[in-house]
Structures are given as C-alpha cells and as structure tokens.
Amino acid sequence: MFIGLAYKSLLNRKGSVLLTVLALTVSIFVLLAVEHIRHQAKDSFSNTVSGVDLVVGARTGSLNLLLYSVFRVGSPTNNISWDSYQTIASGKNVAWAVPISLGDSYQGYRVMGTTRDYFKYFSYGQKHQLKFTSGKAFEGVFDVVLGFEVAKQLKHTLGDKVILAHGIASTSFSLHDDRPFKVVGILAPTGTPVDQTVHVSLQGIEAIHMGWRQGVKMPGATLSAEQLAQMAFQPKSITAFMLGLKSRITTFRVQREINTYKREPMLAILPGVALSELWQMMGMFENTLRLISVFILIAALLGLSAMLLASIRERQREIQLLRVVGAPPFFLFLLVELEALLVAVVSILLGASMLYMSLSIVGDVLVSNFGLHISTNIVSKSNVLVLFWMICSTVIVAAIPSLGAYKSARSRQME
Amino acid sequence: MAIDLQNVQFSYPGVPDKTVLNIRHWSVSPGEQVFLHGPSGGGKSTLLNLLSGMLRAHHGEVSVLGERLDQMSNRQRDKFRANHIGYVFQQFNLIPYLGATDNIQLAAHFSARKRQVLKNEIHELLSSLGIPPDDWHKPTARLSIGQQQRIAIARALINNPELLIADEPSSSLDQQNRDNFMSLLMSLVDKHGITLLFVSHDMSLSQYFGRIEALSDINSPEAH
User: Fold this and answer.
1) Given CB atoms, is A412 within the 8 Å cutoff of chain B?
2) What ipTM did this prediction achieve?
C-alpha cells in the first residue's frame, strides 16, 4: 500500500520525475564508471607482473626501471654488462634469472630480447604463466614470438616474416631488413604489456646488430646468413634482468648485494613495491576524478530534493486528505522519503545497466587501443559500498522536502 | 453523547487575542442528524477541525463519542479520527491519481482495526453506490464529480465510523446529482445509525434534517 502510493504519486508527476531520474542515472553512471575503471585499472596494473622477486637494471630511479623493464615505457638509461648478470644469476640464493634486452621495435611494438626461460618463469596476475595460442617458444636465432595484441593487430600468423626496426619509434628509417625473423609462436592474451611485446632471443638481438656501429648500419660490414649461423652470439650487455629467488626471505639480502655490487652500479627493485609506488602517483588524478563524480551526484541529489520540495506545494490538498483519513505527519515524512528512494533505486538500476552496456560496447576498443581489460562484472564490494553511501545521501538530502511535508501536515487544517 | 462541548474557547496561535470560537454548551445525541449553517468566516471550519481532532482546544472540554479529544496527544487524535470519524469535503476527497478501490483501501489502512479490508467489501460498497466496475481502478480524477463524491462517501464509511462530518459535500454538484447524493447519504446514515454533522450554507438542504442549527446561535465569540 505504502510503496504503491509512493509509486503512483511519482507516476502522477511523470515529467519532472523522469528528468530527475535521468539526472541521477547519469551521475550514478559516472560515479560507478569511475569507481569500476579505477579498480579494474589498478588490478590490471598490479597484475602486470608476479612471481618475479627482483628486477635488476642499471642504476636509475626505481620507477624508471619498472617502467622500461615491465611496462616497456620510456627508454633504458643504461645497460648492464653480461658479466655482472652472469655473476648475480649464479648466486647461491638465485633460483632463476631471465635477461631482457630492449631497444628495437616492430611497427611501434617493442622488441624484447630474452631467453626461453622467460616463457617458463615470467608470470602475471595470480601467478598465471604465459601460454601460447599457437606455436611455441623461439629456438633459432631468427625466430620470433609475438604478443597476442601484436599478432591480432598486425594479423600475423605462424610462419610470417617480420622485419624489426632499430630504435623504438613506430616509423623507423633504419630497418634490420637484411635479417627477417620468422613467427614461431603467438602468446595467449594476458591483459599486460606482454600482449604488446615482440619476443626474440638475445642471440637474435645480437645477430641483427652485427656490423652496426653507433646505431647505424655499416655498408658492406653485414655478414651472410651462413656466416651468422656459425657464430655464437654472446651478448656483451643486456638492459635488465628478472630474478626468482629460492627463498623469498633472502629477497632483501640479495637486493642489498646487487645495490652494493662493487664492479658496476646496479639497482634491484621489488616489482610489487615499485608498482604500488607508481600507483600512488596516480592517486591524485584518481581522487580528483572521484571527487568530481561525487559532486555530480550531490548536484543530482539536490535536484531530486528540489523536485520533491516543489511537489509538496502542489500536494497540499493531498496532504490534507491523508491527514483527515488518519495519517500521522510522520507518514508524510516517510512517504516523501520513500519517493526519493524509489527514484534513487530506479536510477541505480538504470545507471548500472547503462554502465554494463557501455562496457560491453567499448570493451574491445579499450583492449585494442589501451591494452586495458575492463571486466563487465560491475558488482564489486567497492561499488556496492558506493551505492550504499549514495542511498544514505539520498535519505539525508530527501529529508529537506520530507520535513517540508511533515511540517505542512502538522499545520494542516481543513478549510 | 456523540458530541459534547463545554465552555470551549479557541483562538489561533498567531492571533491569540481574537477568539474564533466560544461555545458554552453544545451537544449532539448518537444517531442524530444535524444541519449546521452559518456564514463563511463564522468559525465553521474551526469547529470541524476541533471535532475531528485536527486542532486541539486549549480551553474547555471537547468530547466526541465519549472521548476527551482535548486531552489526547496528536498521535491519539490521528488514530481516533481514523477509527471513529468519517469526513467528506466539498471537493478533493480522493487522491486523484489513485483508483477508487485504492483510495478506499488507503482510508482503511490507517484504522486501528487493521482488519484486512477485503476487495469484495470495497467492491460491494462501490456497487451499492452505483459506481460501475469499469471505473473502480481508474484514477479518480478521470471520473465525474458526482461519482467522486459518491466514492468519497464510500471512503468515509469504510471504517464504520460512528460520526460522519460532511463539509459542504454537495456544493460542487448540480441539482439532480445533489438530490441523488443527499438521499444516498441520508439512507446510508440511517441504515448504519451514524451520527451526521452536515455543514452547509445551502438552506434548501435543511429539509433532509431533523435538527437545524445556526452556528451563530451556539457560537458567541465576543461574549467571554
């Protein structure tokens, strides 16, 4: 009866109620979207790397090292020598070590030289290992394994020829066109920068730079494929390497050993710590977005309140009638509150469905353009919490017109 | 006594010096049908508000159906009104966007009996008042004034009140509807033995009543 009355009363004022519902729907959509994408981005961000205990590179800022080694963003400051890598990798606490060599690109995607161990030890998310959708890890010098997005965007399949470019610009004038690579494997999607990476062996990286000086191809200095095949490519330096330790308890000891390594200045970072540092830097931006969406919501709620308050004036007769049939003034208070809550609940349902539909529609665009996997599952603890607070604010803001109705009911006399 | 007023004085809080109502003694027996007339501004609305418990008298005794309204709390008076008093206005007796049945159910909702008012009971009542079933669920705003006033009677009677207050209930009706309305009202009141206080300035309606009172005879605001 009570809800029916509130519902029919709202229906009776379709026009203004509909506009209010729309305003609230949009604001809830914005609020939920910001909250959802924030969480998804954070998740996908902190899931970028796992199972790696330390990332080691030339001495630089820890964020810089993290950005270029894990996110393939920015440029490495310096290389570290193969000797140092060998020394540390053979340490007694080290379970495994995977070297990384960066600096080349393919159609704008970063090329990473590494070893077959990379596919074995590198993991992301909740310790998910890399999987191949087709093919397998590289074996030969000129084999290449493509990340999922690279293969998808450039429509590559196994056996395709790939020509790498020197440097990391998407349009490069110095191509390693004398040494085409062959696609031997394509990785399954991970939602991490791995999807955007072209993986080759360290030997491959060395081989294509044979005969290059200072980043320029030396005419006449290149070697034939036969000559290359006979050479054992031993890299002199690498960009960075990842370490897995036998026991995590030794993490800080090993980190300290690397950071105080006498023969070469190096930096070892804990990827988890560096990731959260990086995320904290984005906290400012994130809070600004949240603040804006909260203000939008408050504005919409005030609109709801204004709509209800205006309705009280045109409902004086109704209030009088309800009083005469015995409704206490508090009933009028509750009735207006209930109307506000009905509007809020309808708006929440609409806003959430709107978000769900938008995510389903733009999900593909986000993945292909930003490598951002946003789940369409918007039911999360934080979103439920946001909606809970929204309902609380509705009750508080709607108290203004509800009190108006209450007062009007108290002072009402039959004319 | 259905209504018993003793030395009732009332003035509105904003203008405490101006006594609107000053009734030394006035009473109505149970089952009596009283026609009360008087000019506008003579304190009619104030008297009805006191009797229905919307206003509270600060001086004197207001007894309705043997209960002292002037000694009850706001909540008690609201309850009392819901349970014992039916009320019909000149207009706006119904919530315009609700159907007839919903309007009647709403009135039943606030009564203490809390009995489940069966749809059947409401439908019977509506049929007996000559409302066709097609119109039972339409928003009452779409019905004719005559129909609305008849539904208003149904709404006022659903809780079996002992006292029915009618405040110019027929003024918005045309001659024929008015006659139909009056005979319907009187027959229902007779049938259920309800005390009726009927307020109007239309003296032609006084023919239906056994007791006719002028408010000016019982109310003497100047004489303290």
Assistant:
1) yes
2) 0.89
